[in-house]
Amino acid sequence: MLNPDPPPGPLPGPTLGILIRLLHEAALRLQQRGQGPYQRIRTLRGLYYGTSHSLDFERRQSRLRNWGFNLYLQSLAPPDPTPLLGASLVRALKDSAVVWHQDRWMDAGHILVGLEARTRLGASRLPLLGQGGTGLELGTWLGDLGGAAGLLVLQRLEDPLARAVPLLFSKHTYDLRPNLEGDVAGYLVARDPIVKNRVSLLKSHQFVSVAHALEDYAQKPESDWADRWRLFARLLGAETGIPSARLPGRQDLLAWVRKKIQGFTSWYLLYRLQDAGRMSRAALAEASRHVEGAAAELSELFLSVLEQGLTPGASMDLPDLPASPPGPPRGLLALGRLAGG
Description:
By secondary structure, this protein is an all-alpha fold. It has 17 helices and two strands. The protein has a two-stranded antiparallel ribbon. Helix 10 crosses helix 16. The protein is globular and about 60 Å long. It starts with 15 loop residues before the first helix and ends with a helix.
């Protein structure tokens, strides 16, 4: 989504504090109607992704995207909660989809997708065959980065020299940073501090509400906010014990992320080409030549974002990588045959 300029003075848009107040009210109304903790997370997630009443569907009108989110979350689409919450509260929650906190924007829907995935062991831990990751990964950072790589491939079908940063990390076009902040929060909000090196499942008997969990994550003095990128990097398998401008073991992590992005990008391109009415053997062959390069660039940029988060006061500038040269046609053709292309 478009990312507005960081506000220099009075905030023109919603803040995390405003979102938390709205979520408190939503939790109260849903609890009064008998919804438990997990059901409330699922209901709120449906306002943003995976339903015909979601903000994402208002913008994209894609039933396939709805199906994908629910597949990754191992969930049915939750019903429209407008009769329970009221139209004005629903609209206010949707209008607070991207919120400002301290010095950056954060996507609320990605937080809720991550939280819901962590209510199910299968969605949190088990990879989906052929798509590159678990449901949690595909619904959060991997889906964001793989989708971004797919957009870059499509742009390179028109302009082979198109670069990733101006297209995908720019306030003037599309900025992945709010999504990635939401993805990090989706992994860490209401985490079990005893579980160190893997994503912790949510425990319903300890979970009060999304609003309380967000307060604990980002607003209390002892919160994870200042340390969030180190905690997230550790969950990805990064070595974070030694302060450094570059991650130890960077090349291994880079290769792992690149492989995951490349796997999801191919599936994403099938969806986008089919949706645009551009599915053909020639289009698949040409797109497949750019997948590996786009995945390599997005993985490099993702690790740069991680390293910025690990380095207090680091510049927010990202390396403006040159466009990778196209390679020979690869496995996208076989996927296209499976999909009927």
